[in-house]
Amino acid sequence: MIVHTILGLPMEGTKEVLETVTYLNQMDIQGIKLQLLHILKGTELGRIYLEQEKETEVIRPMTMEEYIDLVIACVEHLSPEITIHRLTGDGPKDLLIAPLWSSRKRTVLNEIHSELKKRNVWQGKMLGRSVL
């Protein structure tokens, strides 16, 4: 079984995402796809995002830097027994409202790879350690 995990859900931070990864490490899964939350035209999430007032912002898309930090934290805490099938994805360009940086998938993947090397991170490096 392969699990899809959406990163950047409203009201969910690093702690909750890493709790999900810890939970998934205990499940009988063979793979995971990490996916950024895309805000798309024609969806309820898109409507709420476009109508919200900036002062009372409920839905705030992740920056690329925030996403990379979160992906790296997931990789560090993820069991090496679980195959990573995806580190990011891209929403349909004609429907994408935010985050617009996600449409540059090759750039995002290159930045993730660069940061993994720079930070000396590998899958499972923090396995078994407290998530926060």
Helical segment count: 4
What's the pLDDT, averaged over the residues? 93
Main β-sheet description: 3 strands, parallel
User: What would you report as the Rg, rounded to the nearest angstrom?
Assistant: 15 Å
Q: What is the topology, as strand order, of the major beta sheet?
A: 1-2-4
Q: Pairing-aware structural class of the strands and helices? A: alpha/beta
- What percentage of amino acids are in beta strands? 15-25%
What letter string, H or E per element, gives the SSE order?
A: EHEEHHEEH
Number of strands: 5
Salient structural properties:
globular; 132 residues; single chain
Summarize the structure.
With 132 residues, the chain is α/β, with parallel strands linked by helices.
Topology at a glance:
Layout: E1 2-7, H1 14-25, E2 31-36, E3 39-40, H2 44-51, H3 64-77, E4 83-86, E5 96-98, H4 105-118
Parallel strand pairs: 1-2, 2-4
Antiparallel strand pairs: 3-5
Helix pairs in contact: 1-3, 3-4
Task: Describe this entry's structure for a reader.
Strands 1-2-4 form a 3-stranded parallel beta sheet. The protein is of the alpha/beta class and 132 residues long. Helices cover 36% and strands 16% of the residues. The chain is globular and about 40 Å long. Strand 1 (2-7), helix 1 (14-25) and strand 2 form a beta-alpha-beta unit. The chain contains 4 helices and 5 strands, in the order βαββααββα.
